[in-house]
Specification:
This protein is mainly α. Helices cover 61% and strands 5% of the residues.
Amino acid sequence: SEKLTDLASLEGAKVRSLQLAGSPEVCENILEERGLSGSRDWQDLILRYGGNPLAVKVISATVKDLYNGRVTDFIKNTLFIGDIRYLLDQPFERLSAEEKDLMYWLAVVQKPVSLAELPQKFLWAVSSSELLATMGSLGRRSLVEKIIEKGENLFTLQPVVMKYVSDRVVEEVSGEIMEVIKTQDLGAIAILTNYPLTETKAGGLSLIERVKNSLQSRFIRNPKSFNHQITKLEAFLAKLPDSSLEVGYARENIEEFINLINVSL
């Protein structure tokens, strides 16, 4: 079971700084809630994961499942610690389609948003009760933070999760673009269709700019290859149907990608 003290219910700016800096106290509470034994070794386990509550929460499930909750046995028998990405892969893959969709949206928005704001960008209708249930499920997994600003509940991804999901988006979109060049198939794209990736983030790059950076060396390896790939992308754009629902954000995302690649030459 993944149920434990709901870290997402902790509110305010303190939570963000706590989780960025690490919180041994929160981590100890997680291990206690999990019912793990070997409390003398808890600090060792917490230090291994930098006092990151989410990392400790995820690894505590492994200790429970594979070592019958014995932290001492886990530490004795585990050489590979794994980075946060490795730790997040498994719980992310267990998420429902609706939960993954919401995670992607929060990564695209990259700032705390209210439940009322999110559906305005969705390409499909979603009820407030469905959205609330999905957000609650993610909160129980400590993947989402709830922040109260001026009396309003706002939601965002836990900082390390924000980076993880953003990186996944960039990797998957890079793959979608290369697949479109190869197949010219609208069915080959999903994230490009469903999410607006062109908005510039405060103090950083838009997600589509990160995709451009990821693929740039492959695109400009030689002029002939570059021209061929751009021609293929432009041909795909010309074939896109007029249906805004079917095309979604694909046209603006791909057009911006082409513009960025051309400018970078």
